[in-house]
Design a protein that fits this description.
With about 425 residues, the protein is an alpha+beta fold. Helix content is about 40%, strand content about 15%. α6 (about 190-210) crosses α14, α11 (about 325-340) crosses α14 and α14 (about 375-395) packs antiparallel against α16.
Amino acid sequence: MSLDAEGTYSQAIASRSELEGYFRGGEKPPEKWLLGLEHEKFIYTVEGTPIAYEGERGLLSVFQGMEAYGWEPILEFSTGHTIGMRRGGATLSTEPGGQLEFSGAPRGSVQALHKDNVQHLEELAVVLKARRLQALMLGYRPWDAVEQVPYMPRSRYEAMRWSLAERGSTGALMMLMTATGQVSLDYADEADCIRKVVVLARMAPLLVAMFANSPLREGRPSGYASFRSHVWNDVDKARCGYLASWFDDSFSYARYVDWALDIPLLFLRRGGRYLRPKLSFRQFWKEGFEGEGARLSDWVDHLSTLFPEIRLKQLIEVRSADSVSPPLTAAFAALLRGTVYTPGALEEVALLLPARSLQAHVALHERAQREGLGFEPLAKDAQALVAIASKNLQAWAPEDAKLLEPLVALVQERRMPTEVLSAQNMSTLLK
């Protein structure tokens, strides 16, 4: 989610060092490391139809209902539409197909993240019930065709809609039909960032498998444990998936900048308008567009339109999980705290998951999308990974170790969230 705040980082880009320097601006000492959580859900009528933006049962009405709990509207600069809500450091926002995303304030523990998420869901349940709506937490809409889902009226998404249509075959499916959970992590310096990103990239297929929760497409088995993850394979191969530098010991801020510079712009914001130049960011920086040069705010926008499995901004975003229940979402965050933040954990995970070639890793990722924990090597590594997290949390952050328990139970039984769904019980999802 990006709310495209106006007026930040407005200076012109004078040198490449400023592009790398943006990442250095996110560096924090370990005592200041926090975690962030994003949790998306679909909103349906109780009759089982996706909601529109306007109307008594539309997303705007839901936003208005949340004002009773102290949430304040966020208006889009160019249109005046309400595109989200803000309370303290947390936001609610709309994704392109009306998916509602909660982005919590950064916290020092998973317990605090989970408490915030549960509070917002309790508030949301009251608002939805009054409108005869319900929330559904899955990675992919289980019965709708893409043509049945309306786009939300937001300029950013209108620009992305047309730009992504030129880049791959599944952009509309991603925008309208998918929902995810994401966890954000801090890093101390470039070396720490490199270690974390590389190990998290190795973990990504396991995360796809453990949190697979999207087996259905248009009411029928899709052939994938995580159809949501599969959809990303052809959204835009240039800006999605994995960076080669994660697998050849060459990753750095500079390599991420090199990769990002050569990816085409999805849009360019100027004066409240979303323009669509046919330029890579490198070309735009060198040549300008319509007489204007590149600003650091354009770089920040561009980074928010890149969708690798592990995304680098001024924090590290882990993007490989389907939307799942609140307890499993908390377990996702606890898993990462126990394998990335606890002392010595990254080294343990690196030993468990040795480097593969990019080609071999992509093949494993695609196997995870299709089979999840049904693939024996993934199931065994998932059990070992969760054991590392559990051991480290019990010693270092026991209050968060308890939140890992739902995931411990699933991986021990080699089950996935997706296994509660089938074409036969689909009608029970909205109750």
